Amino acid sequence: MGIFSEFRKQNSNFWRYFWKYSQIIILIQLMITYVLVPILNYLANGITFLGNVKYLSYTNVPYLITKKPLVVIGLIVILLLILLLVFTQFTLLLISFQAIKSKASLSWWDYLKRVSKNVLGLPFKAFGFFLLYFLIITPFGSLGISSTLLNKVKIPQFILDWLLQEHLPLAILLGAIYLIVLYIGLRWLFVLPLMIFENKPIKLAINRSWEMTRGKTLHYLGIFLVLIAVVSIMATVLIGIVILLQWLIDQAAFLGKFDFTMAVINMTLIQFINIFISIYASGVAVLIMLSHTHTHYFYPKREHRGHKWFWGVMAVVVVISFVTYNVTYFNDWLLEPPVTISHRGVDDGNGVQNTVSAMQATSKEKPDYIEMDIQETKDHQFVVYHDNTLSNLAGINKKPSQMTLNELTSTKIHENGKTAYIASFDDYLAASEKLNQKLLVEFKSVSGNSNNFVKHFSQKYGTRLYQDKDMVHSLSYKYIEQSKEYMPKVKASYILSFNLAGIPITKANAFTMEYTTLNSRFIEGAHLQNKKVYAWTANDEESMDHMIFIGSDGVITDNLSLLNGEIHRLFNKSSYSERMTIYVTQMQDPFN
Q: Do 361 and 213 sit in the same domain of this protein?
């Protein structure tokens, strides 16, 4: 069967039982989002609290392994539990869909019995396979073959940027690995159905799936590409029509009395379209996985209650929640403009990072803060520099800590077609004070810093930073705690490169979180502790909008002018159609 014939077949199957498939997807996602995820977060937080672990980061992994083995064991148990729950989710999806398309009249009890049988029959060694398997199918997440339980399994954007900008061979290697993973994912497409419906052991299921897809890799890739195209076109057309309708209403003066009401209605329609498209993508993707599955159910025909009251109540709740959100959104009651922070003092390559000249140019655009980095020199002074070595910007294979301040400030660095001298912190601070420009100073955690790095800095600059209303932040938990000890009045933010679990216990006033895994749940938890959250580093409209919509208190960016433009569009009385367009740019999969 050809690519388009196979897609049409699964598409037709989906529409034949659209409402039944939708019920399964919605109920499973509700269970995960509102029951399982909160329980897992509570367990992880409880383990770290009982183990007196104040934060989880790659920086304290050796400490946890050597000093807190019970905490590590507890977190591993939670990981295994997550894998078991993801397997349960996929099993329930596959069994339910297969029963529906086979016209079997199964109750939820029937589904749960089948799922329990598969879950309880798993050997312990299966967990190793599932860890690999679910990581491999992660690239298919945008097509419904994913789980909210694994939504943090992603490479942070700053690592991708670092690879592309400074280590292109490694980036190419990563791209090759991704293609290999994609290939393996396609060849393992039928592993789970074979395990669930034919009771095959993992090894035999892998071998069988490999045989079934031999010579057909491009065939199945083509089916998924068609699904991507259909979903993209469907979303563009449907949402585009709604926004166009709102634009026409905005332009018609005689409809001015109804434009707000219609904006709320149209926005609600867009939100339902988003849910519908997500269900469609998930449903067709699962049906593709089941395309070679044949089962025979011998259950007596019986009528099950449709629970219309349940779905009616849920529909009312969803509509009320959407309308409430949209009313507050269009009235500017929901969102607040974030603090704007220029990353390394540049805006869209207008200078050499961390230099006085770049800071002076960027300051003209009135950012709330300019973020910059400091390290300690060989003679225990402070230099404004980010990288561990001078090789990238100056072509010198030395660390800043191996050179004196005079040597460093006499060194030219090159970037973005521009040249400047490395700045001492004294000069950088003096220039910022002259401009009345507030700074966000990052303590770089590098091997060349002395043990008294933060103490020495605090004694020398603490008073001025407080008077200037500057802030500090760092990836080093120790540096932040020391900063609050030696400069208690200077606001400090603890940088997290990955949102693992829970809110760190710290004296910091805020958190700086890499935006890729930052979510509203973390922000709400931080706000309960009266701590702000700054998103780092959002450089495109979509990521900026998303950080604003989830409630970030500030956005750190390399494209300050773009961020200012997005804030102006969002908070300066744009038309309703423009506000809807902004909402769509940050709109996420409602089930992930």
A: no
